[in-house]
Design brief:
With 460 residues, the chain is α+β, with helices and mostly antiparallel strands. 33% of the residues lie in helices and 17% in strands. InterPro entries: Galactokinase (IPR000705), Galactokinase_CS (IPR019741), GalKase_N (IPR019539), GHMP_kinase_C_dom (IPR013750), GHMP_kinase_C_sf (IPR036554), Mevalonate/galactokinase (IPR006206), Ribosomal_Su5_D2-typ_SF (IPR020568), Ribsml_uS5_D2-typ_fold_subgr (IPR014721). It comes from Diaphorina citri.
């Protein structure tokens, strides 16, 4: 092995930290009477460690006849910075390497005395017990996602405006021929494993309970994300589309299922669709009997053909408010994208985008009625702290807020909101409840061949 040469007055090179570890292993092997020689070693590191925001690198030991092969990479993996071909097909994801701090006992370990240190995240002992010891043929880096604008309209056949985050998840996977479905999390002390088959698995979210971590993956496998997001008592969009279509004397109105489909059928703009809904729907809630009369159906037909299981017990429906939210929110998405593509100044863009986000939250709170008192307070807190705009994001009824700021004001904005909103003991001890981020690229798939080389999979 090359020697470790740290020049006087200079900080060590990043790789010299690894070389110190290798040298230590060699010395230990010599002390125990082994050959004292590591036959081979490969190391891949995603980026330098940042003490203020540690990225907890994961290490993967792999023993082969030709020697000891180690590949290390972190959950914040950026393919453009590395030669991915150095990854091996037999990489196995294991719990991350924890940071370490020595509480007491300095400069005595090499005198054969014990010291007292702690691991900052996980324990080495758990590494060798992980059951996920399979040969992974593919890796997937999936960014987090936040919806900037366009809430509760995607299942009405309208586009939304999501943004990929810096925060991401790294997944290792391999297909099998026996139909087994196995999901593991490297934090196996906190998250239970899941075992089923592709043909028999089911998603059972108990009322009032948060989903299990693996059920988010099961939603993706089954392709029912939209269905899982449709909230009770407000997702009667078949009903909304049918009422407007019937009042507009649309041919075959019973075949129209979505508000977006109705707009296409009428061949009008979103602005015109807003005017239509506003003109023909009354603001008072429609009773179930009134809906039956308009649609010319019996209660049994309404329940079986139009309503969903979680809306059949509802006695009245706020048709106008829900329909207007969908059409107006879809129109805001169009305007949001138009502003982003315009040639106006950056300051003007931020101001106009913020206004649209504020309008979106008002609609969600008053017309869709999916906000919450705490969410409204947090949105107000962001706006008063200087955000251009803020709104709830996600399903609502609690959850998250997204706020728009320029780069220079981000840290001050976060500091003000933390000081004003996150003041009780339960939230002040969790600094990650609020964080800054910026747009990133989407998901990346790495495919490994029989020789162990990996490359990005591109889809046309």
């Amino acid at each position: 092995m090359d020697s470790i040469k740290v020049k006087d007055g200079n900080a060590p090179q990043w790789y010299e930290y690894f070389l110190c570890g290798i040298k230590g292993i060699q010395d230990l092997m010599k002390e125990r009477g082994d050959s004292g020689r590591i036959k081979g070693l490969s190391v891949l590191v995603s980026k330098k460690l940042e003490l203020d925001k540690p990225r907890w690198p994961m290490t993967v030991p792999q023993y082969e006849d030709r020697g000891f092969d180690l590949t290390s990479y972190s959950s914040m993996f950026h393919i453009q910075k590395h030669n991915i071909s150095t990854l091996r097909k037999k990489i196995v994801l294991l719990p991350e390497v924890p940071g370490r701090v020595n509480l007491i006992g300095e400069h005595i370990d090499y005198c054969r005395y014990s010291i007292c240190d702690i691991w900052s995240k996980s324990s080495w002992n758990s590494i060798w017990n992980l059951p996920f010891l399979i040969c992974c043929s593919s890796f997937l880096q999936v960014p987090g996602r936040v919806n900037l604008i366009g809430e509760h309209i995607d299942y009405c056949r309208y586009s939304v405006c999501p943004m990929a985050l810096e925060q991401n998840i790294l997944v290792a996977f391999k297909c099998n021929e026996n139909g087994d479905l196995n999901l593991y999390n490297i934090d196996d002390q906190k998250y239970d494993d899941y075992h089923s088959t592709v043909d028999t698995f089911s998603i059972k979210v108990k009322d009032g309970k948060a989903p299990q971590w693996y059920e988010y993956f099961l939603c993706g496998i089954k392709g029912i994300q939209d269905l899982m997001l449709m909230p009770s008592n407000t997702n009667c969009y078949y009903l909304l589309a049918d009422i407007i279509a019937k009042k507009k004397d649309v041919d075959n109105w019973k075949d129209i299922l979505y508000l977006g489909e109705l707009q296409t059928k009428l061949a009008v703009s979103l602005k015109e669709m807003i005017d239509i809904a506003d003109a023909i729907l009354h603001p008072e809630a429609y009773t179930k009997e009134e809906v039956q009369e308009i649609l010319e159906v019996s209660e049994e037909e309404l329940d079986s053909d139009i309503l969903t299981p979680n809306t059949r017990s509802v006695a009245s429906f706020k048709v106008k408010q829900r329909a207007l939210h969908v059409y107006e929110e879809a129109y805001r998405v169009e305007r949001f994208l138009s502003v982003c593509r315009s040639d106006i100044s950056e300051e003007q863009k931020l101001q106009q985008l913020g206004t649209l986000m504020n309008q979106s939250h008002t609609s969600l709170a008053t017309k869709y009625e999916c906000s919450h008192e705490a969410l409204d307070s947090l949105v107000t807190c962001f706006r008063e702290a200087g955000a251009y705009g803020a709104r709830l994001t996600g399903a609502g009824w609690g959850g998250c807020v997204v706020a728009l700021s320029d780069k220079s004001s981000c840290e001050a904005l976060v500091t003000q909101v933390q000081a004003k909103f996150y003041t009780d003991q339960r939230t002040s001890s969790k600094p990650d409840l609020i964080f800054t981020t910026k747009p990133q690229t989407g998901a990346i798939i790495f495919q490994c061949d029989e020789e162990g080389g990996c490359q990005i999979v591109k889809y046309e």
